[in-house]
Amino acid sequence: MATRPQRIAILTSGGDAPGMNAAIRASTLIARAAGVEVLGIERGWRGLLEDAFVPLATPDVQGILREGGTILGSARCKEFHEREVRDRARAILRDRGVEGLVVIGGNGSLAGAQALADPAEAGERPPLVVGVPASIDNDLGLTGLAIGVDTAMNTIVEACDKIADTATAHDRTFIIEVMGRDCGYLAMTSAIAAGADLALFPEAGRDQASVVESIVDTVIAVRARPRKSRRVIVVKAEGVQVPVEQLKTAVDARLRERVPDADPAAIETRVTVLGHVVRGGRPSAFDRLLGSRLANVAVRALVAGQSHKMAAWMPAVELPEEVGTRSPYDPYCWLVDLGAALVETENLLRGRSPLARWRAGVFEDIEDALLL
């Protein structure tokens, strides 16, 4: 185990997520209570390369719990993949006397942390790193939830409920596109929570013809029901590789083919793209708690001299001891090996993990039941 750090830094990187500020706040308060000096790094890995450090004290973070986004800001930094760029980042950390780093972010952010602290690159005293998973897509391995997922899901459900009101009034079919480039978790869970009639997500691996036919089958099945429930809500993840306007055109054309006697205006679909609305807003109570609890575990591990770890919330799989152990600081949190988490993330995104296969399979069963 490494030496206890005297000064640590916190950065948020990648896509912002509601609850990041709660993690910044908890990280700062826990570290300072342990007698450790805390700096914030603005604009993620890019800010580190620009030497954009700010001191963080209790007054700086006390009121940020309820705010969305991140007070430290975030930015993409593709050049961090290069060894010489990481060498420069390590030199800046050494010059600043920063011995440990809390990285709050998603897959790319945590991969950057793993590379930054690689002993093969960094030499005898690499910086200590601990990750805190934050991604509204919930696309990180070895954690049941990431910061931001709950708020994003509630935002989607609220929008779907409002759209469902007008869809019901006019017997309309709505395709609602939500965020989720590589992972359809938000589309899956919000579809269930909103009582949608169909969820489209990239893990299903469907081509355009299959996607169109599934929507058309759903519309025809729903419209065969009693008049009271003839609206159709379809939730589509952005990662489904059919542009939403193109999908609407194809669905409308196929409906006219299969229901030639129907009034075209009555069966025409409508499209709503929620886009970055899903990222915004004040964090839910759960995300405030999740961010605080994961940061508590992460910082306590860092202050104890641990590195190459990620704080995890009730991992979705049973873990061997060498991969992760339950945190002594929180009965619902684990400390997992950062490298193992990144490997499992890749498996999840490529559909190779049991969890990814389960998600896709269970929704196929639900879809069949909805058509009955």
Outline the secondary-structure elements.
Elements (H helix, E strand, L loop, with lengths): L6 E6 L7 H14 L3 E5 L2 H6 L3 E3 L2 H4 L21 H14 L3 E6 L1 H10 L2 H4 L5 E6 L15 H22 L2 E6 L6 H10 L3 E3 L7 H16 L8 E6 L6 H15 L5 H4 L1 E5 L11 H19 L5 E5 L10 E3 L6 E5 H12 L4 H17 L2
Parallel strand pairs: 1-2, 1-4, 4-5, 5-10, 6-8, 6-9, 7-8
Antiparallel strand pairs: 2-3, 10-12, 11-12
Q: In short, what is this structure?
A:
The protein has 372 residues and is α/β, with parallel strands linked by helices. The chain is 45% helix and 16% strand. Strand 1, helix 1 and strand 2 form a beta-alpha-beta unit.
How would you describe this protein?
- With 372 residues, the chain is an alpha/beta fold.
- The chain folds into 2 domains: 213 residues, Rossmann fold, CATH 3.40.50; 127 residues, 3-Layer(aba) Sandwich (Rossmann fold).
- 45% of the residues lie in helices and 16% in strands.
- Strand 7, helix 9 and strand 8 form a beta-alpha-beta unit.
- The protein is elongated, with a radius of gyration of 23 Å.
- 48% of the residues are buried.
- What's the N-to-C terminus distance? 58 Å
What is the radius of gyration computed over CA atoms, rounded to a whole number of angstroms? Answer: 23 Å
Order of helices and strands: EHEHEHHEHHEHEHEHEHHEHEEEHH
Count of alpha and pi helical runs? 14
Total strands: 12
CATH architecture of the largest domain: 3-Layer(aba) Sandwich
What characteristic shape results from the CA principal axes? elongated
- Mean residue pLDDT: 93
> Segments where pLDDT lies below 50 for 5+ residues?
none
Structural class: alpha/beta
Strand order of the largest sheet: 3-2-1-4-5-10-12-11
Largest sheet: 8 strands, mixed
Number of domains: 2
Strand composition percent: 15-25%
State the name of the first-level CATH class of the largest domain. Answer: Alpha Beta
Helix content: 40-55%
